[in-house]
């Protein structure tokens, strides 16, 4: 079974618990912090991947490191350790956030631009694409990409809207080549 399918099962379970307790925002915040810790702390990952460390030692360590998170989040981490799937935590967080956003009509977009977008530009993009996609809110993660000559490229889920100068030049080139045949 693929790791993303497994991760989604854990995310669904935690999402349903959060819906029942009306604490989805808290769970998302905790999961984002945990995800950040796992992404940035190689020693944590090395410890949890070490086959010489027992499951009980790993669980005790997780209880100490993440003692301030809710019991539901902690139980999810402990279950991932029991099932030897703690390496799926990044996928669990991603799946949970996607479900939460979808349930509230929120989408996340990665916007690639040659420079940091201003607040006004960000707001414009949010308004235009929220209407286009019939969603309530569009959250934008702006990434500066110096290889873009001008314009922007937006990725929302599997959809890519490419308005970069480079892409426009390629389209123009294709039209010219086709017209000359």
UniProtKB/TrEMBL annotation:
Q: What is this protein called?
A: ATP synthase subunit delta
Organism whose genome encodes this protein: Tenuibacillus multivorans
Give GO terms: molecular function aspect only.
proton-transporting ATP synthase activity, rotational mechanism
The record's SUPFAM superfamilies line, in alphabetical order, gives: N-terminal domain of the delta subunit of the F1F0-ATP synthase
Write down the membrane topology. Peripheral membrane protein
UniProt keyword Amino-acid biosynthesis present: no
User: Mind telling me which PANTHER family this protein's record contains?
Assistant: ATP SYNTHASE DELTA CHAIN (PTHR11910)
Query: Which Pfam families does the UniProt entry name for this protein?
Result: OSCP (PF00213)
Which Gene3D superfamilies does this UniProt record tie to the protein?
N-terminal domain of the delta subunit of the F1F0-ATP synthase (1.10.520.20)
Q: Which UniProt keywords apply?
A: ATP synthesis, Cell membrane, CF(1), Hydrogen ion transport, Ion transport, Membrane, Transport
Q: Which family does it belong to?
A: Belongs to the ATPase delta chain family.
What job does this protein perform?
Answer: F(1)F(0) ATP synthase produces ATP from ADP in the presence of a proton or sodium gradient. F-type ATPases consist of two structural domains, F(1) containing the extramembraneous catalytic core and F(0) containing the membrane proton channel, linked together by a central stalk and a peripheral stalk. During catalysis, ATP synthesis in the catalytic domain of F(1) is coupled via a rotary mechanism of the central stalk subunits to proton translocation. This protein is part of the stalk that links CF(0) to CF(1). It either transmits conformational changes from CF(0) to CF(1) or is implicated in proton conduction.
Q: Under the cellular component aspect of Gene Ontology, which terms does the record hold?
A: plasma membrane; proton-transporting ATP synthase complex
What is its subcellular localisation? Cell membrane; Membrane
| Highest rank taxon of the organism | Bacteria
């Amino acid at each position: 079974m693929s790791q993303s399918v497994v991760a989604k099962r854990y995310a669904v379970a935690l999402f349903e618990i959060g819906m029942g307790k009306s604490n989805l925002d808290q769970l998302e915040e905790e999961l984002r912090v945990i995800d950040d810790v796992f992404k940035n702390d190689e020693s944590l990952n090395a410890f949890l991947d070490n086959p010489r460390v027992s499951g009980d030692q790993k669980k005790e360590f997780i209880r100490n490191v993440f003692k301030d998170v809710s019991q539901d989040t902690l139980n999810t981490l402990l279950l991932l350790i029991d099932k030897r799937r703690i390496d799926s935590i990044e996928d669990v967080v991603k799946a949970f956030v996607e479900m939460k956003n979808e349930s509230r009509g929120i989408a996340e977009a990665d916007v690639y631009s040659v420079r940091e977008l201003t607040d006004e530009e960000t707001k414009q993009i949010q308004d235009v694409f929220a209407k286009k996609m019939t969603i309530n809110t569009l959250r934008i993660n702006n990434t500066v990409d110096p290889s873009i000559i001008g314009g922007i490229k937006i990725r929302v889920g599997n959809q890519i809207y490419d308005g970069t100068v480079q892409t426009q030049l390629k389209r123009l080139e294709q039209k010219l080549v086709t017209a000359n045949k």
